[in-house]
Amino acid sequence: MATPTLISWNLTRRCNLACGHCYLDAVQRKSDCGDELSTTEAVPLVAEIAELAPGAMLVLTGGEPLLRRDLDDIVVVAADAGLMPVIGTNGLLLNEARAQRLRQAGAVGVGISLDSTAPEFHDRLRGMTGAWAGALAGMRAAREAGLALQLQTTLFVENRGDLEALADLAEELGAMALNLFFLVCTGRGVTQTDMPEPLYEETLRDIARLQRERPGLMIRARCAPYMRRLLNLHAGESAGGYAEWSSACLAGRRYLRITPHGEVTPCPYIPEAVGDLRQESLKDVWETSATLLRLRGELPGGKCGDCDFRFSCGGCRARAFAVASDLMAEDPKCSYIRPPGAAPESPQRCEPIAPGVIWAAEAQALLERIPGFVRSRVRARLEEAAVREAVRVISVEFIRDHRPKKPFFGASRGN
After folding, report:
1. What angle do CA 176, 178, 184 make, to 5 degrees?
2. pLDDT greater at residue 30 or residue 61
3. Which is higher by pLDDT, 228 or 241?
């Protein structure tokens, strides 16, 4: 059974902003929310996560996670357990001293939300004048402290023309990634206006073009699995830095979310709880939840289930749930129809990333030591290079000769 490579944990509903599209419906309050997992509950849960998903990326977010007084303690435990702790924050509370403490605790990076290069749009969306300046200051503090940086942008009709400028800013700040989230109307997001279908396709084409033009910056569409179709990547295929699993909906298959009070959902944008970690173990939830098993083993309905990209894309399950109250309904935002003469995608299309390329035993052992979240992407990149250079056997020397100029994620604790 596949295990998660990415886990998002909303540590708290408390927040210092009031974002109009918040999926968690976070609250502004001075005191802790009494029903949230305590430190004594959180620490053993980290061990459960590491047992289920060795080397996974653990995104510690909120609300605003920097309002949790035990954040550093949780990061230390996660790093010591071999996980990759990443802090998802709005950046306002992240000065250089705070960023240094996070790095010393073992955090490898931060994801900071910035929705435009225009301060007015970001501040209006986030509900506070000065939020844009605070986010930018937090990004600079993170880089000064040696933390890897990801910019996180939620896309709307009003800011989709800002993609080039956002990529410029990400490169200027030394970010490793620009993640562009397509809105799922859940939580407070139900009050927001989503992009119409034609703009989805146009925006995805713009993102794909930007990635081709800027290979040094990872630019990814999130909650938009249709990118696999636009790139003509079927299940098991990789190209252009996209791993064989990338962009397809990971909810419940390689991804789960933990709420502030210990419930599990398939992803942050699917509010349906599939387990309660105060009552059962994470391993049991992952392996026995009927909903998670359905997401892994059942084809979606409607045109998604009949599509020639039904395994490699399959549509966004959160968006289907938000509109139809059915996780396996067709994705209502996808305008694509399988062309006449094209057959529905077969699971037999799944194949090795680069047939004919083999791994030396020492190189395979080195690959296995890479954290789980990035291992597939590293493998894809190296096998693409081997095919390009007519190398049949990937050796340790080949791996060392093809190290990326930027690490996928930053330094270890205290360095």
Report:
1. 145
2. 61
3. 228
- φ and ψ of 380, to 5 deg: -60, -45
Taking alpha carbons only, the member of 126, 130, 97 closest to residue 113 is 126
* Contact in structure between 135 and 19 (CB atoms under 8 Å): no
pLDDT in tens, 310-323: 998 999 999 999 88
360-412: per-residue pLDDT in tens? 988 888 887 776 656 767 887 888 888 889 899 999 999 989 887 655 554 33
Residue 330 contacts residue 262 (beta carbons within 8 Å): no
27 with 13: CB under 8 angstroms? yes
CA–CA–CA angle 356, 359, 361 (5° rounding): 150
- The overall average pLDDT reported for the chain is 87
Do residues 49 and 38 touch, judged by C-beta distance below 8 A? no
For residue 110, give the H/E element and its range: strand 109-113
**pLDDT recorded at residue 28:** 53
Enter the pTM of the model: 0.85
Best CA proximity match to 167, nearest among 242, 239, 237, 117: 117
Report the amino acid identity of residue 346.
Answer: S
3-state helix, strand, coil in the chain (%, to 5): 40, 15, 45
Mean pLDDT of 146-156: 94
State how far the Cα of 140 lies from the Cα of 116, in Å rounded to an integer: 16
Q: Say how far apart CA 68 and CA 178 lie, in whole Å.
A: 26
Distance of alpha carbon 86 from alpha carbon 102, whole angstroms: 10
Decide: 327 and 272 in contact? Cβ < 8 Å.
yes
DSSP state of 300: -
Q: Which two tokens stand for residue 259?
A: 């709420």
Q: What is the DSSP letter of 18?
A: -
Cα–Cα distances (Å) from 91 to 50, 130, 140, 244, in that order, read: 27, 11, 10, 32
Q: Are 39 and 297 in contact (CB under 8 A)?
A: no
